[in-house]
Each structure stands twice: as C-alpha cells, then as structure tokens.
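Message: Study each token:
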Amino acid sequence: MPELKVTLLTYTPEPQKIMAAAAKLCYARADIDTVMEGLTPEKTEGFIDMLSGLGHESPMEHMNFTFGIENVSRSLLAQITRHRHASFSVQSQRYVKEMDFEFITPPQIEENAAAKQLYLRTMKDIASSYNSLADNLKKANIESGMEERAAEKKAIEDARYVLPNACTTKMIVTMNARSLMNFFKLRCCNRAQWEIRELACRMLKLVKDVAPNVFCNAGPACVRGGCSEGSMSCGKANDVRRKFKKSGN
C-alpha cells in the first residue's frame, strides 16, 4: 500500500510575529508602519498567550500554511473538503488516466486474510473494468470523428465512475491557522476516521515545528478542555492528553 506523505510546502513568513502584530494593532497604540517593530520573541509569545486567554482567534487568520498531500484515498478527499475555510487543488480523474491505479487498504482489511483477498480481487476487477471502459469509449469517440486526445479525455471522464473510494489521490491544501485549529480539533480526535486522523496528526506536527506557541495546545477538544463528543466519547481523554503533550502531536 502506498505510504501517506505530507509536506509543508510554504507558510506565512514569521507566522507568530504577524499574529502578534495583528494583536498589537488591536490592543495597543500602534501604526501600520511600526506595528512589527519591537516584537521580540518574548513579546510575541506574550501577545499569543494573551490572545489565547481572551479567546480572540481572528488574528490567527493572517497565518497561512500550504501542504502537499500524497497517497490518500478519495474517501479522505470527501472528508477534508468539508472544511470549507480552505483551498484545494486536487489531481483530476477527468484529465489524468488511472492506469493500474494505486489504492488504500484499511487496517481492518489488511489484518484479515480472507477480507484482504476479496478486497485485492475487487480492486483488480475494477481496474480491468476501468481500462476496458476507457478503451471502448475512446475507440467509439474516435470513430465518431473526435481527435485522439479529446477522445481519450472524454472516455476517462465517464470511465472514472467505476473507480472506488479507495483509489489514491494527491492534493495541495492551504488553510489559515484558525481553520487548522478547528481541523485538528475534529480530525485528531479518536472518533475521527483512521486515515484522516493520521493525516491531521502529521500536519499538526509540521506546523508545531514552525509556530510552536500558536499550536502548543492544538489537537482534539480534550487536549484543551472536556471532550466534545458527548455520549460518543472514546472515554480515553486523559490518555489522549498525555499522548499529545508527550509526542508533540
């Protein structure tokens, strides 16, 4: 199975300083020309701590983080795009032919020999059907007078309907820090689906490396307070808190 790969491609320069500058402008006499001046690491940390204590989150929106994400399923894609305060660029199945597509195998299937055998056979059958459909439709399109490249594009556009949620994809995702905090709250939780939880935890580690004060308390809701899942709680809040404090995730 292809391995999940997450890269922090770029982010707002001096992200913590720009957040502190926004706070300084809100709460102190400062001009735009001088708002970045005097923000030592200690003062920057102080402004961030103050904002955290006040629950004032809008200055976090000035920090953007862009990730390259590879080898995740189309199932995960459906989940992550529900986070609407984000920008997504995803490899298209309309323009890119899925020849012998790679796919994600859930751990529960991987650990069950009979289930894995059935799963792999199903993926093989789907790949065969997809290729046959694409070839058949392309031939028909050419026979109808279409140019070859356009004929293939139109063929794979319709052949993709048989592809499974397991099919891998890659994307570039940009979120601001405030959106990321909400993303981590929901997706680092034990109640989140396993694949997007692993992705969220890796993303959290990457942003902690470049903005440690901003994301020091990031993670599932129970890291900063009580569990938000109510009767659906995993019941392991203390274990989760220890895990995130110990691992940096």
User: Anything to note?
Assistant: The longest strand covers residues 64-73.
